[in-house]
Amino acid sequence: MEKKTLTVVSVNISEEKGTIKKPAPFICLNEAGVEGDAHAGPWHRQVSLLAEESIKRFGKELGRVPGPGEFAENITTRGLELKDILPLDRIVTENAGLEITQIGKKCHGSGCNIYNETGNCVMPKEGVFARVIKGGRLKSGDMMEYIPRPYRFLVITLSDRASSGQYEDKSGPAIIRFLAGHFEPLKRGVYTDTVIMADDRVRLHDLLDESCRGQYDFIITTGGTGVGVRDICPDTVKPMLDKEIPGIMEMIRMKYGSGKPNALLSRGVAGLMGSAFIYTLPGSVKAVNEYMTEIVKTMDHLLYMYHGIDAH
User: Fold this and answer.
1) CB neighbour list of residue 113: distance below 8 Å, 6 or more residues apart
2) Residues of CATH 3.40.980.10 domain(s) within the chain?
3) Can you give the pLDDT at residue 64?
4) Angle of helix 246-257 relative to helix 285-306, nearest 10 degrees?
5) Is the pTM of this model over 0.70?
6) In 3D, which of 263, 257, 269, 262 has the Cα closest to residue 232?
7) CB-based contact 126:51 (threshold 8 Å)
8) 3-class SS at 23?
9) Which of 217, 182, 221 is CA-nearest to residue 200?
10) Burial (Cβ within 10 Å: 0-12, 13-18, ≥19) of residue 214
């Protein structure tokens, strides 16, 4: 992937909220945000950023060129459309690092000088907010590297026949296609590992125990959710959960089971295991597509909550 960089045009501070920020020779980032800035604190919007590209576009509507900090941004940048990046992406230098937590914000309306002047403002739409992950000094002219954050998936197919080569695995590839189709338009990268294995309780337990310790964000299994003797997936997974999330599976069973009662027989579970969210899906392609249609709707919100980002 091509390395993307941006330049710090200005660093800006205000001691009171609701006022424009003034350019400073440098800023010091610490665990609370920008030292001496009114918006610093133990929350997810410690540091605000706005791209010069956004400022220039809005300047045409404003009829003048706004100065750095006039939109109350701590860091004014050039070289990258910040409005297009995503929460959990990172912007770093050798000395400091930021993790993106929010794109845009609620407009303050008449409490904003720019809004009073034009009836509009660029910050609520294209401003970016971040928290400090590495403290350090930042100044005008510094170069920063943009590091996108892909979602990391492990897809496990549980099937005695598929693992022995008697049957082609179709549900695992269906999950991968679904993930790509959902996240690609959202510009979110997806990294996926796959495993095909027999319906083996001990091996599944060991694989999950190893895989839920930071290597993956999401683990999705397919197969082994029925009531057969070899259907051991939910029975293995449920005792390993730190926090069960029953609502998603209950809703899926009711939604599809209302027209097809056999869908009610799946025993799939979902929850948080270590640092990974896990979902256990049935083994058919049709069921995979039905389950994934609902599951992907909650993935962003779950991951943001886990990482302490208030996306409500």
Assistant:
1) 20, 70
2) 151-306
3) 83
4) 150
5) yes
6) 269
7) yes
8) strand
9) 221
10) exposed
| Mean pLDDT of the 68-88 span | 94
Q: What is the pLDDT of residues 174-221, one digit of tens each?
A: 999 999 999 999 999 999 999 999 999 999 999 999 999 999 999 999
> 104 vs 60, 82, 111, 273, CA distance in Å?
20, 10, 17, 31
Structure tokens at 163: 């693992």
CATH number of 4-147: 2.40.33.20
pLDDT higher than threshold 60 for residue 114: no
Which residue bears the tokens 């971040």?
130
What is the distance between the alpha carbons of residues 167 and 296, in angstroms, rounded to a whole number? 27
Pairing status of strand 136-138 against strand 75-78: unpaired
Question: 151-306 has which CATH code?
Answer: 3.40.980.10
CB 96 within 8 A of CB 134: yes
Q: Can you tell me whether residue 310 is helix, strand or coil?
A: coil
Q: How far apart are the first and last CA of the chain?
A: 32
Q: Does the pLDDT value for residue 120 go beyond 70? A: no
By the 10 Å C-beta count (0-12 exposed, 13-18 middle, 19+ buried), 310 is classed as: exposed
